């Protein structure tokens, strides 16, 4: 049912001229920034933020702080549906791909694919399935096999021929840390990723990404104020070059400063024991317009869209495939 060429991959340049297409998952950070009266100024400013942060971290052989720039592509993965007597396609995920431009040596360097992560099925799981499941329960719990289908679809994507034809390495996803967890600083320090933090418990997002085959580590990069959560396959520290990691940090830290300034644009750095909070008041606001409330509402809208157009029509055969995949 689901084979290598079940998936199709499209790549769109994210720059100052970017306009979201009708098929774009509108809850992503980059689509939200690219609408309204401030769209071009927003795009210019966020891209400049990314470049400045990259050069700030990659300061070696970079005395003027302008050696590098980052080019971004929005990578969309669709699933071609051809079963149950129906032929259609459905948008599954969107991620970002980075390319590093070295202006000193006049060369382009492949960066990391992944970075941001947006998913229709994840919207369904978190914004529709989970609230409905807990509606009349006295204690929060998760359904049996929660996240299995999404995890198996994601693992199928990264193992597919279309993915391997487009990207040389497995993805790294970089997200905000959870506001429901406490993180503690360790003695471990990486020259690019920075100081490592640990947590004694796993968040729901951590467990969800585990179903996708990914592990997690938390680092607070140099001159950052809060740790980022890095989800990855293999070995994060040895599988990716310093410049690849800098590309992910500079890109996603810039988005998080816009999306969650209470955490990532706070005016003081995370202490040794740290619990992030979106009610924190001592932070600075970027000069970039971002509608966070709209994003939250659209996650529910698109979760319901997924339920009606993907889960309900194909639930039986998807569950059968997923159970076989796990086996």
Task: Write a brief structural summary.
Helices cover 38% and strands 26% of the residues.
What overall form do the CA principal axes indicate? globular
The largest sheet, given as strand count, sense and whether it forms a barrel, is:
10 strands, mixed
Mean pLDDT: 90
- The radius of gyration over CA amounts to 20 Å
What fraction of residues sit in β-strands? Answer: 25-35%
Strand order of the largest sheet: 1-2-3-4-5-9-8-7-6-10
Residue share in helix: 25-40%
Order of helices and strands: EHHEEEHHHEEEHEEHHHEH
User: What structural category do the secondary elements indicate?
Assistant: alpha+beta
- How many helix segments? 10
How many beta-strand elements? 10
Low-confidence stretches: none
Distance between the termini: 16 Å
The count of domains is 1
What does this structure look like?
It is a single chain. The chain is of the alpha+beta class. It has one domain. The chain is built from ten helices and ten strands. Strand 3 and strand 4 form a beta hairpin. Helix 3 crosses helix 10. The longest helix has 35 residues. The radius of gyration is 20 Å and the shape is globular. The protein starts with 6 loop residues before the first strand and ends with a helix.
């Amino acid at each position: 049912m689901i084979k290598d060429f079940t998936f199709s991959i499209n790549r769109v340049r994210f720059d100052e001229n970017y306009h979201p297409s009708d098929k774009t998952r509108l809850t992503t950070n980059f689509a939200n920034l690219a609408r309204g009266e401030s769209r071009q100024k927003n795009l210019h400013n966020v891209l400049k933020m990314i470049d400045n942060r990259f050069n700030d971290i990659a300061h070696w052989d970079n005395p003027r702080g302008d050696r590098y720039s980052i080019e971004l592509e929005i990578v969309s993965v669709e699933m071609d549906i051809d079963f149950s007597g129906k032929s259609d396609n459905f948008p599954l995920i969107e991620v970002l791909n980075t390319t590093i431009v070295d202006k000193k040596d006049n060369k382009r360097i492949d960066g990391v694919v992944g970075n941001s992560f947006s998913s229709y099925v994840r919207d369904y799981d978190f914004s529709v399935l989970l609230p409905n499941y807990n509606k009349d329960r006295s204690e929060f719990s998760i359904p049996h096999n929660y996240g299995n289908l999404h995890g198996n679809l994601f693992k199928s994507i990264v193992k597919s021929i279309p993915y391997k034809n487009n990207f040389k390495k497995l993805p790294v996803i970089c997200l905000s840390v959870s506001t429901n967890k406490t993180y503690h600083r360790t003695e471990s320090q990486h020259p690019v990723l920075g100081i490592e933090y640990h947590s004694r418990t796993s968040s729901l997002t951590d467990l969800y990404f585990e179903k996708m085959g990914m592990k997690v580590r938390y680092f607070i990069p140099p001159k950052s104020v809060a740790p980022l959560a890095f989800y990855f396959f293999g070995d994060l520290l040895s599988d990716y070059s310093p410049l690849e990691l800098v590309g992910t940090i500079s890109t996603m830290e810039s988005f998080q400063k816009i999306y969650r300034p209470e955490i990532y644009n706070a005016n003081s750095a995370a202490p040794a024991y740290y619990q992030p909070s979106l009610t924190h008041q001592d932070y600075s606001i970027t000069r970039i317009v971002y509608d966070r409330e709209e994003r939250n509402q659209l996650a529910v809208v698109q979760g319901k869209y997924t339920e009606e157009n993907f889960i309900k029509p194909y639930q039986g055969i998807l569950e059968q495939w997923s159970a076989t995949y796990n086996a």
